[in-house]
Amino acid sequence: LTHSPRPLIQPDSLKTMCGTAEPGGTESLSTRLPQEVIDMIIYRIGADEDSWDHKASLKNCSLVSRAWLSASRAELFHSIDFYTFDDVRSFASVLKHSPQIAECVRWLEISCVHEDEDGDGRGHPRSRNRRAVNAAYNMLERTCSLLNRVETLVLIGTRLKYRLPLMRSVEGVEIRALTIDDPDLLIRLFDSLPQATELTIHHANIPYDLPATQMRRFLTRRVSAASLKTLELHNCDLNVYRLFLSLPLKYISFMPSAPASLEEFCPIFRDSPAAASLADMQLILLHELDIQPPSE
Known about the structure:
α3 (54-62) runs antiparallel to α4 (66-76) and α5 (85-97) crosses α7. The chain has an eight-stranded parallel sheet with strand order 1-2-3-4-5-6-7-8. It has 13 helices and eight strands. The chain has helices at residues 29-32, 35-47, 54-62, 66-76, 85-97, 115-118, 130-145, 183-191, 212-215, 217-220, 238-242, 259-270, 273-277; strands at 79-82, 107-110, 152-158, 172-179, 198-205, 230-236, 251-255, 280-283. α8 links the parallel β4 (172-179) and β5 (198-205). By secondary structure, it is an alpha/beta fold. Mean pLDDT is 80; it is low at 19-27 and 117-125.
């Protein structure tokens, strides 16, 4: 989950990549090639992430013929990044004219959902009122509802204040820089992702000034994600772990932010259902620990 298998496509450049091809009057070598060979050529071009012009190459391939268009689109739109709400609007416009493109998206990265708090995502001051932000969230939900082939969902810099549609195709989820003040927001997220089997969270924190009544909710609420088997939580608040340890997990990767976090985690984990179902566990330490062997 840490790396996209394809170069991400910014939606503001999508309209220039929706090439169309009309069959020519003369059959060329490119149109006589078996589809398997065409697919292999396109895949190799799309996988060349070190090439600065791979997008232009894929666009040119899409103009060769209809046989090349389908394979080129699959590579061009494999990975989509919604960096701003304008990106969502641009991609929604693309889908309106070419709805078949939705079938190509396998990797979706959303990092625009903090615009209502921190500006527009590019350092510009906040200008949207609450009504406009809610409209943008609704547009995001509608657009995501059209993407029924997404396998990996990446959420960056989010407070989970928005709602995702039901996305049954998603198997892997990665969340980076999560700030959460209500466990129900995380619970609601996984209600939308019932088939997710893998979750990675990097840096999840709970506001230190959260009222005690709200903090107690983290002690009693639990995420219901029956399909989730692999959990990687790195540098997360201890109460975030509590939300997931009631699940029958098979693998946990735990990276505590400090030695004290490990000491607090052990008794919570020992008494959880996950401890009984676990097949493998990885402990990543960034600090030296003075661990004494157990007495005889």
